[in-house]
Design goal:
single chain, Aminopeptidase, 14-stranded mixed β-sheet, 13 helices, 35% helix
Length: 374
């Protein structure tokens, strides 16, 4: 007999956050999230996403009272108001391979959605576009990036059996860096720069980045305005992202493109891969998890491409080439051998075209699902 328990206490939240780390303990392809950061994300007082969102969390427990599943129900009021939709998101979903468990979890969220006047379920998604989205449906034998969570192959079948259908697919590529990066990237970057009166921002350390951050987030809101599931970021949400942005940043893998008036019109951010370091940390920065993270940031042969954003006015003008050319200099300097693209919509050809002159392979695919509820 499965019982559903709403998360209402700090102890419940700890159990909720820890559950996937327990479920996949010893799994070679699972990357544990840092539990303290996950708890902060799910705590209204510590996450500005709750300015526009509300949510509840539930645990599924067996007859012994042991957690066998979890799920979050989230309503992003700002997105719904902007899009004219009545969507309840489900996220942070994990469960053992038992139809009774997955059914009980999703029916609980569906009931919550109906109570709130929603008519559609959509997920897995988080509060904002920058939270993890999608269930892995291809690439179960590949180590995920820290921004592309692993799950067992049975998840997708459970969802389709419960009436959920494909909403959107996100793909990830592994790009092999050649010994010499083709000169065409630099030539294209120079042509785009001259033709559009654009240039790279100059910075040498994290402190130098700070004057550009407000412009960076203004550009982000413009670039992502039509993106699936995106709602404009508030000042508080930008502050949250700034803290994340600066925490692990390596300026060798940051490009900020400016126009003639010094306005940010595009940017890209990549990070040294933290997947193996987070596996060693086992969900905690203490006592030694932070050491594994620091080592990975300093010594690595792989970078994860986190984000590329270009202002609407400059899309399809080749600004991607300028961003990648800046990355290329850091890649060459630090001896990077591989680039992993984190989850991007499968039809995002403007970014995917960057790899067409390099050896690249589609390695992972994740999917969000949708269901109309009555």
């Amino acid at each position: 007999m499965i019982q559903i328990k709403e998360v209402t206490t700090k102890k419940d939240l700890r159990t909720f956050v820890h559950f996937p780390n327990q479920l996949y303990k010893g799994n070679f392809f699972y990357v544990p999230q840092i539990e303290s950061k996950e708890r902060d994300t799910l705590t209204p007082a510590k996450n500005h996403a709750f300015e526009v969102c509300e949510g509840k969390y539930w645990l599924a427990c067996n007859e012994k009272g042991e957690a066998v599943g979890r799920v979050a129900g989230i309503i992003n009021h700002k997105y719904n108001e902007t899009s004219g939709k009545k969507i309840c998101r489900f996220g942070w979903i994990d469960f053992v391979d038992d139809r009774e468990v997955s059914k009980a979890l999703l029916e609980t969220v569906e009931h919550y959605a109906k109570e709130k006047g929603m008519d559609t379920m959509n997920g897995p998604m988080g509060f904002l576009e920058f939270d993890e989205a999608g269930i892995l449906v291809e690439g179960f034998d590949k180590l995920p990036t820290v921004y592309g969570k692993y799950n067992a192959p049975y998840y997708g079948k459970h969802l389709t059996d419960l009436g959920y259908v494909k909403d959107a697919d996100y793909v990830e590529y592994l790009i092999k860096v050649p010994e010499v990066i083709p000169e065409r990237y630099e030539r294209m970057a120079q042509l785009v720069s001259v033709k559009n009166s654009l240039h790279q921002a100059e910075f040498h350390n994290r402190a130098d980045l700070e004057p550009y951050l407000d412009g960076l987030f203004h550009c982000l809101n413009s670039a992502y305005s039509q993106l699936h599931g995106f709602s404009e970021l508030s000042a508080g949400q930008c502050d949250d992202l700034k803290k994340q942005f600066l925490a692990n940043i390596n300026v060798d893998y940051v490009s900020i493109v400016l126009d003639a008036e010094e306005r940010v019109i595009g940017f890209g951010v990549a990070l040294p891969s933290l997947s193996k370091a987070m596996q060693k940390a086992r969900g905690s920065l203490l006592p030694f998890g932070w050491m594994h993270m620091l080592k990975a940031l300093r010594q690595n042969d792989t970078i994860d491409l986190l984000l590329i954003a270009i202002d609407e006015k400059y899309k399809n003008k080749g600004v991607n080439a300028m961003i990648f050319d800046k990355f290329a200099k850091g890649i060459t300097k630090n001896g990077i051998k591989y680039i992993e693209s984190t989850r991007e919509l499968e039809d995002n050809t403007s970014v995917q075209n960057l790899w067409r002159y390099l050896e690249h392979n589609l390695t992972k695919r994740a999917r969000t699902y949708i269901k109309t509820i009555k």
